[in-house]
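Hi R.,

Quick one: here's the Choline transporter sequence you asked about.
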Amino acid sequence: MTDTEKHLEGGHGSASVSTLPAGTDLKRRESHAHEYGTEVEMERNFSFLSCLGLAFAMLNSWNAMTASLQLTLPSGGPVAVVWGLLVAAFGTMMNCISFAEVCNAFPMSGGQYDWTYIIVPAPFRGSLSFFVGWMATAGWISLAATASQLGANYVAGIIALWHPSFEIQTWQFFLLYVAFTLSSFLLNAFAVRLLPLVDRIAGLWGFIGFVTVAITLLACSSGDFNSGEEVFTTFTNETGWPDGMAFMLGLLQSFFGLTGFEAVSHMIEEMPQPSKNAPKVMMTSVLLGSSTAWIFLVIYLFVAQDLESVMTATTGPVLAVYHQATSSRTAATCLVMFNLGSMLFAGQGLTTIASRMVWSFARDRGMGPASPWLGAVHPTFKSPLWAVVFVAFWILAFGCISLGSSVALNAIVSASVVLLQISYIVPMAFLIVRGGDIYEGYEQSWSLGRWRRPINIIAMAFLLVTTVCFIFPPFIPVAGSTMNYVIVVIGIVAVLCGATWVIDGRKRFHGPGDLEERLAVARSAS
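And here's the predicted structure, written out as tokens:
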């Protein structure tokens, strides 16, 4: 009996398993995989640098955290921005290291829902894997929607900077939102072979933008900086909550800029040597994202002359500080083009990951009766076309909500963090319980060894505490305009998940049924 059989014995819908000789070449393994129903349909076009560029552009940390400062400044102020990011970076890295080890042993495109199926005991394997898949899919789609929203915010801010008397209408903002969504859709649907090049450019653009904007802000401020005390010790609490709770709520901005660190695991079938490259990309992207974001936010706080006016500026917080620092509308507009371009690339990258998540989950019959379409790869475009269409549809649906209520859209944005963290909690819990037993008999190029359980426990603590905190309303007393509707979003996703499980999933969802073949192909890819 193979190790895979031991993992899956007695499970929900036990898989057909066949072990291939270690020396079998890739073409023979792919042919064998086809025999078991897992034909390798995606081309391995993504090099290590392409995947790193995708991950850096997708996290978009320095840009995303700056654009969402309004989440933190009332909930801790500069202290939450500067020190909260270090807290979030540490917690995220603990989670990233934990799952990087899992990805090294089990390079699977389903990411956390595949890992859940592998490590959870048989009686609960199918249902928990299905639940994790739904949480992760919903989280990635809602995270992709944030790029369209923040990109539209940048364009609206530029208009407000040059035409202060012009008030952009809701339908006009929605058209900007649609434009960003369509650009990501078209590239992912019909130009998939260009994506590796685009992702390399995206990573380079993001890094050049970070350096250029940071240096320009410092140079234009001409030594007129805020004091170190103002930047590093000023604590603001306008939430109504106690200071400790306000600080925890302020962490949402930092976690938002680092969430989705497992993105590259969903590109396993499109990259060479995924068992080695994917974990490297995961950890490197978090390190780069958190370090560039921390440096940029410190510079931002040093050059911001009036944070109160920044928060109420019609241009948005980014353009407001650029304008304050440069005293020039032209210079501020030129600088924000780096942010705007980075957000375009982020939207493209997030759509890529979200569509791969949908495609992989549907291929394992996780998306109900629509799975055969959503799990297919278009023979001409070599893209999971219907999965891309599905993602774009829901991104546009989220945008439609903003026509009636900006609060509802903000709930969806916040839900992206909570939903993805819920998808991490389930496999992390079983990693802690089972420890190194799950890796016995499987190839590992590196191991956490005796540090595994302490790191997993620290990671789990961060997930549990922050997930609970991010469900609380940001201000008290609570009113309709300040209520946190994340719990409603989670409830809707949970109901849809439960209904799909009852109607289709409990009979047809069997997890990665050809696990041994998929692992064989992934480990042989070069």
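Confidence is low (pLDDT under 50) at residues 10-40.

Cheers,
M.
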